[in-house]
Amino acid sequence: MLGAGRYVGAFFAGVKFLCLYPWIRRKKTNRFAFGVRALNDELDYDCPLIPSRQLTEIFPGIEAETIRTGHVFPWEGSSISAYETLAIGAIIQHLKPKRVFEIGTSVGVTACNLALNLPEDGELYTLDLPPAPEHGGAIETKFEVTVSDRKMIYGDRTVRRFLGAPIEERIHQLYGDSATFDYSEHEGQCDVVFVDGSHAYEYVEADTNTAYRLVKPGGWVIWHDYNDGFFWPDVRKYLKSIATERKIMRVEGTMFAISQG
Q1: Cα–Cα distance between 151 and 228 in angstroms, integer?
Q2: Cβ atoms of residues 212 and 190 within 8 Å
């Protein structure tokens, strides 16, 4: 009976959100659709080129790590999820990197939680486009960006979550277009590179090539927003195109793809 009740409840939830709410509560319908697509990706993921692995399979012993989190509220929709926050914190605690480079700061939730889990002598460099002009005006980019990218680019990115936090002094904020930025002083110096910039194909390609230049031999490249391709198809498309040359894995329960340099 309990199982039947769950099926009936799920059926009526689907009817409500797919038939009724699109007319009266569109934001809730969008959140429902996002959740359903994410759940479908988790339950029905199938890509032999990029196999799905538990975090403990990729990093044996990571389950023993103690994670620090902070400055995650309010959740504004574009940041990593709660579980992804725990996952990235555990990875950093486990690897103990001295230098981490992030492409795509947004409001700084990921940057803050990366820095919180660094060893005492660790540093984080995070690159983002300059803030949008106060009185309007365009932000020039080398390549076209997606609609979802534009929402973040022209949103309020001036209030970084790590500002005023004890770890702020270990975070180095950099500004520029990730496709044209001068990375020379960081090349071959990074233990971890976290790619979460534009989701457009040309930027995914450029940022990925950059990440592999920045990371030390044996270091790790992590991409965010890798999923079934419904929301950010170019991330999946590009990573699949290089998966025969690079060993890339998907971290189960997340939208992370990961590869060792």
Answers
A1: 22
A2: no
CA-based angle 108:109:111, to the nearest 5? 60
As a whole number of angstroms, the distance between CA 182 and CA 180 comes to 7
pLDDT in tens, 151-198: 777 776 677 778 888 889 999 999 999 999 999 999 999 999 999 999
Cα 123-193-115 angle, rounded to 5 deg: 35
User: What is the spatial distance between Cα 227 and Cα 9, in angstroms, rounded to a whole number?
Assistant: 27
* Nearest-angstrom CA–CA distance, 227 and 24: 29
Alpha helices in 154-242 (DSSP H): 201-214, 233-242
Q: Establish how many alpha carbons lie within 13 A of residue 127's alpha carbon, considering only the half-sphere containing its beta carbon.
A: 22
28: confidence class by pLDDT, cuts 50, 70, 90: confident
- The answer to whether 116 and 124 are in contact (CB under 8 A) is no
The rounded distance, in Å, linking the Cα atoms of 175 and 104 is: 10
Asked if CATH classification 3.40.47.10 holds for the domain at 48-260, the reply, yes or no, is no
d(CA 217, CA 223): 18
Rounded to 10 degrees, what is the CA torsion of 227, 82, 172, 91? -80
Distances (CA, A) of 134 to 78, 152, 173: 22, 15, 20
